[in-house]
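Reopening closed ticket. The problem is back. First fold of the pair:
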Amino acid sequence: MSSTIWSVDDHLEDILGAIRPLDPIELQLPDAQGCVLVDDITVPVALPPFGNSSMDGYAVRTADVAGATEEFPAVLSVIGDVAAGGEGLPTVGPGQAARIMTGAPLPPGAEAVVPVEWTDGGTGVGAATTMRPAGEAPEGASGEVRVHRPVEARAHVRARGSDVQAGELALAAGTVLGPPQIGLLAAIGRGTVRVRPRPRVVVLSTGSELVQPGEELGEGQIYDSNSFALAAAARDAGALAFRVGAVTDDAGTLRATIEDQLIRADLLVTTGGVSVGAYDVVKEALSSVGDEDEPGSGIDFRKLAMQPGKPQGFGSIGPEHTPLLALPGNPVSSYVSFELFVRPAIRRLMGLPDVHRPKARAVLKADEPLSSPEGKRQFLRGAYDSESGSATPVGGAGSHLIAALAHADCLIVVPESDTSMEPGAEVEVVLLG
């Protein structure tokens, strides 16, 4: 255990300095969601690849519908249908029109598309409201159509390359692939993509007093909330999270459990058992890690100049030197520690350039001054109002008050040098939402 008191910044710098982004892999598009793109992606073909209709209607020559009105419509001969994906486009000549569906290519000879609502739809009985299905009205692809309004050239036609041109940058390296990005990759014909995979994070909570939700509580027992909260936080950060139910206060059992989990972990997170008590099993189990069988491994247990979250552990374990962060067991301490240290580590594994939560300046809204221990950076749960630019403390300073945490969307930061913060003072807030 280090006798030095570490600052929050030095502890985080030590963690990020030891963690490298995961190696890139090639994944199928459905598997790449949530991953970070490794290379710039350029567009191989223009989108759309051909001029196509943005409406259901009729492909026409503009001269044929010039001056058309409902009273004096242009009467055109319908020569056939043009459907999206169809083959054998008809050529539209003078006095002719072709029924065209949204997304279908503009046929030769045609210069614009007249929406079906501007025509009689081939029925001869006033303005149409919809295109009659081809299967129900095959005669609609022939006969006559009355057009009630003129159109300009290229009206209701999406030009080739109007979305993106061939050679343009589609997605930059470092982009997180969400649904729109996956859709764009598919649209330009990419079936696979090179990404950094989502980190696999194993969360273990420790304590013989912990019971899984849904089970009966015995005397002196509490429900295991930490592993659920931290696994959810890991998923929220972009990781694949694996939650291991509470491990009893036995060093051998814990060490064996951790070693079993190494095969599926890019990062291990423990909660509880890192303080100075007789039953702080994480420290007991992991203090011996880093012997001659595992050179370069080892877990350093530290005291940080922060509240909550003073006791912390960080190092690596196993033959692959898998990073491990040992967090305190109090629910608020563990969650605040996750936000400050584990989330940035996950984002670094993903290869993201910015690993930090956004911060803002806010005016402290409180009924009385906030007190803070000298020499410690305090993180208070708060509610941030972006409209007024204010932050209001939620709940007290206790590290066990998890109910207040559920109503907080920011952490109010009280610097090490301040022992009191007056209402109306400007504070820094870490935005959690």
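Second fold of the pair, where the issue appears:
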Amino acid sequence: MPAALFGQSQQERPNIVIIEADDLGFGDLSCYGATALKTPGMDRLAEEGLRFTDAFCTAATSTPSRYSLLTGKYPWSNKDAKILPGNAALIINTQQITLPKVLKQAGYATGAVGKWHLGLGDGSVDWNDRIYPGAREVGYEYSFIQAATNDRVPCIFIENGKGVNLDPKDPIYVSYKRNFPGEPTGKDNPELLRMHPSVGHGGSIVNGVPRIGFQTGGKKAQWKDEDMAELFLNKAKDFLKEHKDEAFFLYYGLHQPHVPRVPNERFAGKSGMGPRGDVILEADWCVSEFLKEMDRLGLTENTLVILTSDNGPVLDDGYKDQAEELIGSHKPAGPYRGWKTTRLMGGTCIPFIVRWPKVVKPGVSDKLVCQMDLLASLAALTGQSYSDRTDSQNTLPVFLGQAGNGRQELVIEGMFDYAFRQGDWVMLPPYPGKNKEYELYNIKEDPMQQNNLADKERKRLRQMMMRFEQLKRETQKITDF
């Protein structure tokens, strides 16, 4: 534990904020080398904090990655930790330990604002009634969230387990099997669209944008994509104001740059990269405004802020928004090969910045760290323990820029496949329809993963194969891929 923390009373412990972007790549931030985009809000955190260059999520897709951050467990330990429809049941057992439960146990006020995508209810939710179980049951005393993602129904906000602005005279109904009579869809009514799908997204039309799934009713409650960023920002700022005089933990889930990318008019056309670039600028503005509010409230010095992303970037993710055509020289994954859904470095090596002016010295760290380890690390920071078995490791000294070596190994999940990281090496086991043989790469020397050393490093490969199989048993892997 850093010397600065010894003797602190409960009131002096840091506030904790996690800001998690959605599909933001390692190379999308100017502090990580981007030149075509400028991200001064996120860069401020890097200038005032510790920027990690070898930080990972556990999975290259949203739900599994977020499951690991919240529970400290590998997603392969839960068969339901996969990309979920908007009406999926909550995939977290309400009895298991979670990050907000740990911090609530430590006396923190806990809140979640923004992207969710971990399921809600029991699988047969009445969206017009109390939505249970949900964010409160996994540890958040306050929540203002989406059920899933921007491109999935239901397209309403949920505050403390209740749909926002729902009219009892116009109840909302949701289906992922069939459309409701008389409701237009993206597939059948393209003349009603202002954004057209490239693949999928042929369901209900909300705000001129076709979605995945079908909904009817709830017209007053439907969100307007252009206003979403500022609404989430204001809810996050309100949480700060309400809890500024007590220890608090806030999870602030940015919805950008996930599709559909519909920026507010003040950002539309500003990036020169089309909607994807524009919403990254919008997300950066949100971070900047949030930090300014922390300044105004006198919270900056003793608040631990973590900025990260749920997985790597993607360009065409189902809508014709010219993300590929206008990318130019910009490299969303930075020096790495791979994208969202892939087990390659670009799919899981993500931005990760820690700022805590009272303790953390500004700098850059190349230590291997993982979001999954925040549970054990923040439990250590706040003096908490728990009886649940997790895969989370206490790497707090590394997160705070103190001594330590970070993680030694990590399993990385792509889309129904895995990679295994050990030191500077990454092993890709064979999967049907993908690689037929084992692949082995030295990431430090070959970040693009182009030089397969499996034949030259047979001993190392065999050792990694054995350790990978051992980890499957130790971490109670139950997925069948």
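Update: turned out to be a display glitch only; the data is intact. The longest helix spans residues 275-296. The chain has nine helices and 20 strands. Please close again.
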